[in-house]
Amino acid sequence: MTEALTKRMTYLDALGLAQREELERDPSTIMIGEDITLYAAGGAYGDIDMSRVRSAPIAECGFAGMAVGAAITGLRPIVDLTIANFVYLAADPIINQAARLRYMTGGQFNVPVTFRASMWHNQANAAQHSDRPYPMFMNVPGLKVVCPATPSDAKGLLKAAIRDNDPVLVFEDNDLWGMREEVPLDTDFVVPIGKAKTHREGSDVTIITVSGVLRHALKAADALAKDGINVDVVDLRTLLPLDNEAILNSLGKTGRIVIADAAHRTCGAAAEIAAIVAEDGFDLLKKPVRRVVTPDVPIPFAQTMEKQLYPSPESIANAARSLM
After folding, report:
1. Is the previous residue joined to 133 through a cis bond, with omega within 30 degrees of 0?
2. For residue 189, is pLDDT > 70?
3. Taking residues 84-95, what's their average pLDDT?
4. Treating both helix axes as pointing N-terminal to C-terminal, what angle do 151-163 and 11-25 enclose, rounded to 10 degrees?
5. Annotation says 129 is catalytic
6. Do 18 and 46 contact (CB within 8 A), yes or no?
7. Catalytic residue among 121, 129, 216, 264, which?
8. Burial of 153 by CB count in 10 Å (0-12 exposed, 13-18 middle, 19+ buried)?
């Protein structure tokens, strides 16, 4: 274990550090992805035996399936799917195999595989490269889904995913890659999967956030404070399993809730959270639930059109004001 020190680094560097530490800690950890040996040759993963890094052809279904097979033999693969839309191409080994093998074998097989997928949006990458696909995988029993919103959580949640004995999808927000903060250097620093984090305490409105929307919610909270509205900001960090207790505890303080998420509206993460509130927190509500999400449309190529679709500090603040 390293001393309890920190170093200022970016979200992307924190992810890289998590991988290097886990590769050095556990020789059963391996990496699979497209062109990945090029990064290893450049020292991105430290002084690692190159046999533990496998470059794969552009065939996501094939190398995701290979990783599932490797996992049930006792290895711990980290699969880099790069752009999050490519997770659709790997859906069969993730959903039909990784998520179900423990159940189908009566617990004889563990599937400790981590799938990394970066959500590229706000950058004119057009409809086939700009999705936030995590709601689809929230509907799959047997998976865990995490969405880190800060560099520290990026390191801690990726390490938790790699050490987990079940398949975990790590959805990274590309808009955050350059974000910097002090990140713990302790090699055993792990953020527990399934635990939300309160970033700001308030008594008037709860804002629940997913991934990079956190920074917009905090700006909205600053603006609302000038109006005398105190906001409780809760970053879920994990979408499967959801931290229902954190959601309801915050609602109990405020009685008003805004759910801000950059995924699409229908059957999205925000819809599931709203259902939890309706079922288990209805008596706590002073006003109806508000969702600030992306409309159900394909993402346009034009950046000026794209930016209008996602939650912003202004749209989140306006939703909160409507509840007062």
Report:
1. no
2. yes
3. 96
4. 30
5. yes
6. no
7. 129
8. buried
